[in-house]
Amino acid sequence: MSNETLLTYFQKHVKEEPNRVALRHKDYGIWHDVTWAQYGEKVRQVAMGLISLGFKKGECVSIISENRPEWVYSDFGIMSAGGVTAGVYTTNAAEQCGYIVQNSGSRFYIAENEEQFDKTLKFRKDTPTLEKVIVIEMEGLKRYKDPMLMSFDDLLKLGKEFDAKNPGLFEQRVSEVKPDDLAVLIYTSGTTGPPKGAMLTHSNLLYMSEAMVDANPIKDGDETLSYLPLCHIFEQLFTVMINVRFGTICNFIESPDTVMDNMKEVSPTVTCGVPRIWEKYASGIMIRMSDATWFKRQVFKACMGIGMKYAGLKLNFKPIPPYLKLAYLAAYGAVFRKLKERLGFDRVRVAYSGAAPISPDVLKFFNAIGLPLIEGYGQTEGTGVTTVSRKGQLKIGRVGQPLPGCEVKIAPDGEILVKSPGVFKGYFKNPEATVETLKDGWLHSGDVGELDEDGFLKITDRKKDLIITAGGKNIAPQNIENQLKFSPYINDAIVIGDRRKFITALIAIDEENVIKYAQDNKIQFGTYASLTQAPEIKQLIQKEVDRVNKTLAQVEQVKKFTIIPKRLYEEDGEVTPTMKVKRKFINETYKDIIEKMYRSGTE
Fold it and tell me: pTM (2 decimals)?
């Protein structure tokens, strides 16, 4: 068995192409390059700094920071020292941060700034293992006296000095890292109870980087934009794994508020996003076009008609008549090329959607404008990806074929089972949950699906989310919800109906687009809640529900809906950091509203 890990390839880049650009980041309006030599030096300093503080092989370090070079300097520094990285979402409350530090046994906690440092003051009493809080941006803390506080710059300085006094120690620690060693703990956002730490090994990470590129090849000079949370496996796939294994250039956003601007500036060749990101892009395009002149609206409508017809045939492996090919080329030249340039998608060769199912309408929309958006499926416990569509081999409503080396089968009850070199070791300090998920080497996904004759996987829904109506009909709420979310006016939809006589839905509006609609139509409102209760807004959403109902079987149609009178926040426990609705929590929180829909009449 090979002893190669991502660290093998990291050091190879450092030695063989030291002056090649590895990373870019933007500070104060200026983009800065980081070469592999500079990247390697920072990683070495982090590793040696931690070792000088007594860091031992197999120990865990927690990181809480937005995406930035220091995140990956720390990550590879920790791994080079033989350690394990545990990422923490910056939006986590102090109690949640403390749980991860306590559960992982972290002695060292790398925090981005004063805001994240302050959270440690609230949980320290519950984390006796914590020894040092290493802060990247010291603004507001330079005069703060605390024996636990240390700056990231001081860690680097300490590492440089320790390295000079201990030649060869860094190389020794790196050489001791084996493929089966634990590399990262990914804490899954628990919808019930505390999050679970999925244990991924160096072997898992290397397999996934190679399998993904085997499915959709990477080219020399490919660039990505790092903007999804780095403690999520989906972003780690591109920023950590593929970047280091294949030498792509990773560009870090300036801040979470500048993603769209940075996308235009960088124009990546490979990009990824969760469904909510792609839905926002699509609704943004549609709303912008509604503001255009009559002539531009007609041109766009005609071109989209051609594009959707073209994409529909292409995505269903049907022949495209010559006249449609010519019409599409004209539409692309007239509208789609400029549209892609405006969004920063003009260089994109392949775009991935993952972390949750995407609406077929959204997938078709982007392929219609010439953006090759494809869907993948997987979970943290399988190192992120199980199946993925290949470019040019996409089936609408399917999430692709298994990755090379990955085996997928469907259990008698419809559950998707996975066996591959990407399957995790188990949950950290949680053997009970591990036994439930890993059985005889098969990962039990918790999703229900089916495989077609070509090996393409279709996801029906989460096993626990399937609705069985009072009449005994099985309904997958995700399909209905995804169709509703294609509307530019609907941000989220939660379909209800288990053991009920008919289907209802809770709707969260797209605030920006609905406010614009209200202003354009002179609808009076004072607060968010009053906006959601305006009769004209209810009529607007009713039209969107009616549009979707026309595509559904009678038993699946949404008979009643209620607009949720508040925004859904991660801080309130209503959505995950990747913007997935926590269905059980929502159902419990809004049970009175739900009951009212069923009390006020039956179908």
Answer: 0.87
